[in-house]
Amino acid sequence: MRVGLSLLLLICSVFCSEITDKTKLKWWQTSIIYQIYPRSFKDSDGDGVGDLKGIISKIDHFVYIGVKAIWLSPFYPSPMKDFGYDISNHTDVDPIFGTLDDFRTLLTECHKRDIKVIIDFVPNHTSDLHPWFLASVRGEEPYKDFYVWTDGIEGPDGTRIKPNNWLSVFGGEVWKWNEQRQQFYYHAFLEEQPDLNYRNPKVIEEMNNVIRFWSEMGVDGIRVDAITNLYEVEDVSLNEPLSEKPGVPEFQYEYLNHIYTSNLPEIEGAIRGWRNAMNEFKTEDGVPRFMVVEFYETPEKRNAYLGYGCDLPFNFDLVDPGITADCGGRCIRDMVDIEYSALPKHSWPNFVLGNHDRKRITKKRGAGAANAMNMLLLTLRGTPTTYYGEEIGMEEVYVPFEDTKDPWGLNYGKERYTEFSRDPCRTPLQWNGDSQSGFTTAEKPWLPVHDNYRTVNVETQKTSKELSPLQLYKQLAELRENTAFQKGDLKYAVVNDNIFSYIRNSVGDPRYLVTINFGKTNSKDDYTDYTDGRFLGRIIAHTGNMKNEPFYKEDMEVPLNGILLQPDQGLVIELLNKRQEL
Ligand SMILES: *[C@@H]1O[C@H](CO)[C@@H](O)[C@H](O)[C@H]1NC(C)=O
Ligand SMILES: CC(=O)N[C@H]1CO[C@H](CO)[C@@H](O)[C@@H]1O
């Protein structure tokens, strides 16, 4: 009987490892993606702005926290009107960030440590100082139709006026009159960011060449920026209908329904083209270059993009409007469930808590929630993206109007800039307790460092005796290496106003219960309905804020029929077999 059983196990183990091989996950499914905003990560030359050498000097940080893929926001030459999203050369590095050789070094050093590098691809527009635009203004071929030009219409007094009512994402006009060319050009963002004309095959080819340039160098993937705005209808006489949203002024983007300028079906062709350009290049591990696209859309719309050759459409459900202050256990489960249930079969889920355009999660939930949020992000099924600073629970910084840098904020003036300015979520990463948190030797960094840097910083959190956000992050990243977290099932367990909990398991692996209190009151719950008869577990990780009975700590065994969690507390529990219990 015993022999028979072990024989069966032996056969199964051969068989099962075969299954595992066949379902081998790609690197972008198993790694955490870590977003770096280069201006704010680490300054190596004392000018107050982060740079590539700074990032290189901190590669060990990624190793330490267990991140295997980094994504860099733009570092290309740029007049910096939109801090790098206004590009004047897509295949070079801005001197403020370093040189192409610095980038090559970064790539080599990352690859040595098995860290993938993803770069930002900004296809929608260029800077108005890009040589293509300057040539287009002069009407020179082949650049004449590289941008979206129109004569406009004749106004009452014979002057040319703009052809329609479209609005910029940043607020106000999208049509800018150009004296030299005697035409209007279209800009979905700033007037210094003219939109490229994707109805021109030469533009498509040039942008494919940009992808080829970086792929050839060895870049592992691209993150495509602002995809929604890529195409506009050709007939510019069409006005967009009013959204009728209450209280939205005429100037604001949300005043209109963007049926002619947003999410046009032509985007599909563009994505397919980029995928083909990337597929021209082989990789060492045989995994095609990775493509993730950015846009804020319904799950149905974003998932449609999967069929076009992009690997992941960023899922911003947790970001925008996302996990607001009042979102409890059930509310978060519902958001998470949208991703799982809307995803086509065989597609891979992903989750994001923040980025350089939206409020930090600690701003919405309070600093005390940092650990609970990271526990959620890193234990869900799917690829997590971490915005720099989230690993130490960084908080936003108040920036007075006078010091505001972000054009989106400035566009709305002193009264409303705080609603739109992205400066508060873009402040320097806090490395240590030195002056300017070790980010720079300059007296004044480009944005202020948070006052709390003496305690909230990487160095202090590494050595802290009390569990710090950084330590928990590292621990959870290690836990993610476990098959149950990488590709195991996720089954919801207790869900109520406070608690969101789920079981992660895969065949033959330990089984885990993750439970987090996202509510405002204590919650004592019985989990045994979801644990297949198991009634005892062992704590593997906790959020560190265990100041009250029963003082949960690591390795503590807990009965699963009465787990008490206070707000912002969370546990990862390995379910024990009954046998062990005897
Ligand atoms: C971008 O910069 C590189 C290196 O300086 C240069 O060779 C290339 O012509 C530039 N591209 C454009 C479009 O100006
Ligand atoms: C998330 C993201 O990258 N958003 C960018 C979209 O494009 C505009 C204009 O280039 C940028 O300002 C945003 O930062």
TrEMBL record:
Coiled coil: none
Glycoprotein among keywords: yes
All copies of domain Glycosyl hydrolase family 13 catalytic, residue ranges: 35-426
One BP annotation, GO: carbohydrate metabolic process
Signal peptide start-end: 1-16
Pfam name, any one: Alpha-amylase
SMART domains, A to Z: Aamy
Top-level lineage group: Eukaryota
Protein name: Glycosyl hydrolase family 13 catalytic domain-containing protein
